[in-house]
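4.2 Preliminary Data

To establish feasibility before requesting continued support, the project team ran the inverse folding procedure on a target of 274 residues. The structure was first converted into the token representation described in Section 3, and no sequence information of any kind was made available to the design step. The complete token record follows.
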């Protein structure tokens, strides 16, 4: 007698890519994010660290940010930024939360989002992160607050490699020199910097064309810094583009973000020997 194997009807729930992402996504810790960046810089590998937040997502969808008015051109270019691919492209997103990963010191107003807010932000941009790790957008900020010695070590190494600073026109030259060395400062408007991006890019390219060896380009110009970093990364090979973020405001004595109001940074340690 021939025994026939029974046939079972497979019953499964179809799971979308979005469902998979929301169920499995996790954020790289601030410490590991900083380690990855430092390792790339030590190995002199060209790349870019992009800090995406809700302002960038708003501009991606044609909505104004608090420091930048939206436009169709910016919307298209922000899409290019999110779409950037490569082994040394570090894309971060502001989704530190219970669901996706947090540090014990984080709380609302200090880099911690609700699960609902983090999920909603991720839903809007998840296709850009499929196959990519989601790095911490506040790696240096967090380490400066809670592990200032490590932040100081990173900043000293960053200073050694920096060849250009692109940021707010009002930044004190003495602070620029202390953080990044005696480098050229390409000055950017505090608001609506994207409106001047072509001029800023031209000036930056003029500086970088004279740099034959690897170097770090530090950018601190809000959401507009992402399109600029994308342009320069694609146009001028051989450098790493680092998005500094609002810690610079704190160093300059300006508490422009809630986390700067709610936390204490020991700047004596963070800036030691710089």
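Position-by-position output of the design step:
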């Amino acid at each position: 007698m021939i025994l026939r194997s029974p046939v079972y009807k497979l019953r499964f729930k179809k799971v979308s890519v979005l469902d998979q992402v929301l169920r499995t996504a996790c954020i790289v810790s601030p410490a590991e994010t900083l380690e990855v960046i430092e390792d790339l810089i030590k190995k002199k590998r060209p790349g870019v660290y992009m800090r995406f937040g809700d302002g960038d997502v708003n501009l991606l969808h044609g909505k104004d940010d608090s420091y930048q008015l939206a436009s169709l051109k910016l919307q298209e270019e922000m899409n290019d930024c999110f779409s950037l691919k490569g082994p040394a492209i570090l894309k971060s997103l502001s989704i530190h939360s219970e669901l996706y990963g947090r540090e014990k010191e984080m709380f609302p107003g200090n880099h911690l989002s609700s699960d609902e807010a983090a999920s909603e932000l991720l839903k809007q941009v998840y296709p850009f992160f499929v196959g990519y790790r989601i790095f911490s957008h506040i790696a240096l900020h967090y380490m400066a607050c809670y592990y200032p010695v490590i932040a100081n070590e990173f900043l000293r190494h960053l200073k050694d490699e920096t060849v250009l600073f692109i940021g707010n026109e009002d930044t004190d030259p003495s602070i620029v020199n202390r953080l990044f060395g005696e480098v050229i400062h390409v000055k950017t408007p505090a608001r609506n910097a994207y409106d001047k991006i072509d001029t800023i890019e031209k000036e930056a390219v003029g500086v970088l064309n004279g740099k034959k060896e690897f170097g770090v380009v530090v950018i601190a110009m809000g959401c507009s810094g992402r399109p600029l970093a994308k342009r320069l990364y694609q146009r001028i090979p051989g450098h790493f583009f680092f998005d500094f973020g609002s810690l610079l405001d704190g160093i300059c004595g300006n508490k422009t973000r809630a986390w700067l109001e709610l936390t204490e940074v020991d700047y004596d340690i963070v800036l030691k020997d710089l």
